[in-house]
Request: fold
Amino acid sequence: MKLFIDTANLDEIKEAASMGILDGVTTNPTLLSREKMPFKQLLAEICKVVSGPVSAEVVALDAEGMVKEGEDLATIADNITVKIPITLEGLKAIKTLSDKGIMTNATLCFTSMQALLVAKAGATFVSPFVGRLDDISHYGMDLIQQIVTIYENYGFETEVLVASIRNPLHVVDSALIGADVATVPFKVINNLIKHPQTDLGLKSFLKDWEKVNKG
Ligand code: G3P
Reply:
């Protein structure tokens, strides 16, 4: 399973990249709003740190405007992936941009039928928001299972990019179901690595190392 980081913070991206685990980055207007650097300059810097797909979202609401913004974003770097919300206009923009060979990430996905339609339109990725479904008492991971099954049934190449991840179990379940990608906040990446028994075991080894005859 590929791991992307869900942030626009350059320091977090560099830290995760240094661990050798990072396959890409996802941003959105909210994540970009937390950073001070001009967003196109920031996206260009991110694309220098990570060679994998870097998602940047359009804000136009009409297909023509989305395509125009998407083509502009795509000039920032070859690994820019244009994030398009799954609306009627978004579906048209996904089709147009995909036909132009521009990577697309269909975002704000909340149903398996949205995922089916964007796959038919040629989306590179689909981003089902599991955390926001959990937040309203729906099992977000059930949606991932449905989409993975439907894509396998019909051989769709669109990659399932699990988003809105809140905790390590979302990552565990994404991997067990067979999602292609999980985009993970920095805090959750750190929680994936940490375990108290690892820390205790290391402490115990180092304590006993003091007693080793070092010649
Ligand atoms: O990539 C989408 C993700 O950033 C949304 O996460 O926590 O705002 O639901 P969240």
About this structure: The mean pLDDT is 98. Residues 35 and 212 are 50 Å apart (CA to CA). The first helix runs from residue 10 to 18.
